[in-house]
Amino acid sequence: MQPKPHSKKIRVGLCARVLALAGTLVLANSNGWAADASTAEPIAFSQAVELALQHSGVMGIATINQWRARKSYEEVRNNYIPQITIGSGLGYSYGFPLTLEGSAPSVANFTSMQSLFNLSLQQFMKAAKINWKATSLDVQDKRNAVILDTALTYAELAQLEGKLKTLQQAQAAADKAQTISQERLQEGVDSKLDLTKSQLVSARIRLRAAEAQGQADVLREHLSKLLGVPTDTVAVQAESLPQFPAISQDDDLASRAVQNSPTVKLAQQKVASAEATAKGEHKAMLPTVDVATQYAFLARFNNYDIYYSHYLANNFSGGLNLRFPIFNPVQKAKAAEADADAMIAHKQAEITSNQVAENTLKLQRSLRQLSAARDVAKLEWQVAQGDLELVSSRNETGNSNPKELQNAQLEVDDKYAAYLDTSLAFERAELQLLRLTGELENWAIPPR
User: What is the separation of C-alpha 84 from the centre of its chain, rounded to a whole number of angstroms?
Assistant: First the structure.
């Protein structure tokens, strides 16, 4: 039986351990495991999401692509607006005034051209407008991707910080168990093998702690890049994460995902755009009408007054330019190529829809398994806590030794770390499912 003061110390340590497992321990800096951000002001989850959306390079590219698509639409639409050119074909003429690059030599000239009737151009303009409007879906998809990345990184970092706290306690227990083994070896109670086993347990915990700390450092660096803040100012607040919605296995989430998915909607818009483009290529073989005007100021030094009996300095022409395509095998082949592109877009939209439905159903069903695994890990942790209490009671009455108590504490630490891992896997699957069903942003940024 251990001396009474020693038993009192053990009871105090046990109480501290129970508080730690309840999540009330303060993050320590022993053994270099704790993050430097422990002294930083925690960033709430909602604030982290807003910062990530503001500083996201992915969102910036998506927004630029949207602006680019709008300008592509305006490029086609502006064919119906007069395109005006002012210039000069100033030159000297000797003899009959010849043309300069197809135009008569002039001191100043003015030309304008605009489309008046062009069925092909109307379809191309429709396709460009569809592509422009579709970019808003791409922006939404990229926005969801940024929110998902931020949420996963934030949640995993919070879990790792809790895991590091547990591993710190486990390392302290392992070191104490190793010390006890050394003392019992000197007393002739334990063997050299028992000491080696204690050292192995301690080494394994150090390995797990090093892995967890490395992951936490990488996640903190990644989160700092997402938020656009220095790494040493990144600190998470686990309790600020919103409550996950209850997901039933009976809900038809696959249909909801297909209906709400920006990826599916974008694929459908690409079909509409490809069909409009194909119609435009076919209608390129129909008549078109343009409006053209031209003005030129002609000088006498180009000999116009000598070779033309009714010479005028100011000259203007305007009218309609009609074109009737008769035979154009090149355009016919191009139209057939556009038809093939439209058929490919149809098939791709079907594939995208099927993939979203399949991935949604797969995640939905995996939640059942992950939930069961989390429940098992939680029960194992609770059983380990019960065993720890029993060993502690026996130790106080002299029916066990301190080494058994430390081993029981190690078992609690191990089961708690496993519970954190299964909880993170479950949350990761839930977040991915929320993105597929189009509910991620409402979860991360609840409407006010």
Answer: 45
Give me 115's structure tokens. 């489309």
In this predicted structure, what is the pLDDT of residue 20? 36
Longest CA–CA separation in the chain, Å:
133
Using CB atoms within 10 A of its CB, is residue 373 exposed (0-12), middle (13-18) or buried (19+)? middle
Domain 4-81+119-286+329-444 has CATH 1.20.1600.10: yes
Task: Please name the residues in contact with 232: beta carbons below 8 A apart, sequence gap of 6 or more.
Answer: 36, 37, 40
Q: Which residue has the tokens 């190793």?
A: 178
Structure tokens at 395: 């130790």
Separation of alpha carbons 439 and 363, rounded Å = 15
Alpha helices in 56-118 (DSSP H): 57-77
Residue with tokens 């000297």: 92
Residues 231 and 220 sit within 8 Å (Cβ to Cβ): yes
Count the helices and strands in the chain (H runs, E runs): 11, 4
CA nearest neighbour of 141 among 252, 264, 27 = 264
- Beta bridge partners, 87, equal 109
Residue 261 burial (10 A CB sphere; 0-12, 13-18, 19+) = buried
Nearest-angstrom CA–CA distance, 80 and 395: 92
Q: Which pTM was predicted?
A: 0.76
Q: Say if residues 48 and 240 touch (Cβ distance below 8 Å).
A: no
Identify whether the C-beta of residue 171 lies closer than 8 Å to the C-beta of residue 213: no
Per-residue confidence band for 165, with pLDDT thresholds at 50, 70 and 90: confident
> Which tens digits make up the pLDDT trace of 417-441?
889 889 989 999 999 999 999 889 9
Q: Could you tell me which of 386, 404, 413, 388 has the C-alpha nearest to residue 2?
A: 404
Beta bridge partners of 113: 83, 292
Helices in 228-283 by DSSP H: which ranges? Answer: 253-260, 262-283
